[in-house]
Design goal:
- By secondary structure, the chain is α/β, with parallel strands linked by helices.
- It has helices at 8-16, 21-32, 36-41, 49-63, 68-72, 94-103, 121-129, 142-154, 203-206, 209-212, 214-223, 242-252, and strands spanning 75-77, 80-82, 111-115, 134-139, 160-164, 176-181, 227-236, 256-261, 267-273.
- Bound molecules: S-adenosylmethionine.
- S-adenosylmethionine (SAM) binds next to helix 7, strand 4 and helix 9.
């Protein structure tokens, strides 16, 4: 691209010929550190050479399917914007349903353990909703853990401790009122190959062996001994895994398994009781 002078409208029109119009505007707002509305009211403003270079670099990356959230280091979840980069899974709207289901319970003074916090969206959203809830969040990836901490500090969640822990290793937790996890559950062999941007996300956050069930099975069996009487285990999973979750819950010794459909009518959440 030649570095001749170019204004906001011209830059957007070039970008719109390559990528989605909204994405073009979000990328330029990010580069210029302004609201989207500024772009409309300042169409004739000339981009600096640095802005122009960065903007078209990001447009090219978006064209090659890199997710927008990684390019602007931000994704909205529940009531806040979270910092994200390619070391964490991009928060999914389905996971808000998990938060919603947990919030239906009495959380005052309760202890909640989240397994695999990623960017921290679940724990931080819950912690901000109820300051009387005590949260412990675990994560295997140190890079993800740093991002969860960063988000927790930025959003001033004061009731969460994040620790580095792999659920395949020994568990040394006290008994919890609630355990929650959105573990890796994608069966790599069933991907169509055209999932937009998924290959930019960390594999260890997405894929699980045994048709996507390995980590769910580990969490189901190990959690039983770390739940208080009346404790509950909340899990997000794929709709195709719903029946298998019931089977695993029975096998491990849970007394109940309630399942809930997400906003698309798909069985996405299981709540296991001891
Ligand atoms: C599907 S992502 C969910 C992240 C976040 N909770 C969310 O909902 O966006 C699963 C997370 O579990 C972590 N993870 C995977 N295997 C793990 C293990 N054995 N022990 C602890 N964390 C693990 C991954 O690094 C990833 O951050």
């Amino acid at each position: 691209m030649k570095l001749s002078k170019i204004n906001i409208l011209e830059a957007l029109n070039i970008a719109r010929s390559k990528i989605d119009s909204l994405d073009s505007e979000l990328l330029l707002s990010f580069v210029k550190k302004v609201e989207r509305s500024y772009l409309v009211t300042h169409e004739k403003e000339i981009l600096t050479a640095t802005e122009k270079k960065l903007f078209f670099k990001l447009v090219d990356e978006r064209e090659s399917k890199k997710p927008l959230a990684y390019l602007i280091n931000q994704k909205g979840f529940w009531k806040n914007d979270f910092y994200v980069d390619s070391s964490v899974l991009i928060p999914r709207p389905e996971t808000e349903f998990l938060v919603e289901k947990i919030l239906e319970h009495n959380l005052d003074g309760k202890d909640l353990l989240e397994l695999g916090v990623g960017s921290g969206i679940i724990s931080i959203s819950l912690g901000l909703e109820n300051e009387k809830l005590n949260l412990l969040g675990t994560e295997k990836s140190l890079n993800a853990l740093m991002i969860a901490n960063k988000n927790s500090i930025r959003l001033q969640a004061k009731n969460i401790v994040f620790i580095n822990h792999d659920w395949n290793n020994k568990w040394l937790f006290s008994k919890m009122d609630y355990i929650v996890s959105n573990p890796p559950y994608v069966n790599e062999n069933e991907l169509e190959g055209d999932e937009d941007g998924i290959w930019f996300e960390p594999e260890e956050a997405l894929f699980s062996k045994e048709e996507g069930m390995k980590d769910l099975k580990t969490i189901i069996s190990k959690s039983l001994n770390f739940l208080k009487n009346d404790g509950l285990l909340f899990l997000e999973h794929s709709p195709f895994q719903a029946k298998k979750i019931i089977k695993e819950a029975k096998k491990a010794g849970y007394s109940s398994c309630k399942q809930f459909k997400d906003y698309n009518g798909l069985l996405r959440i299981s709540v296991l009781g001891i």
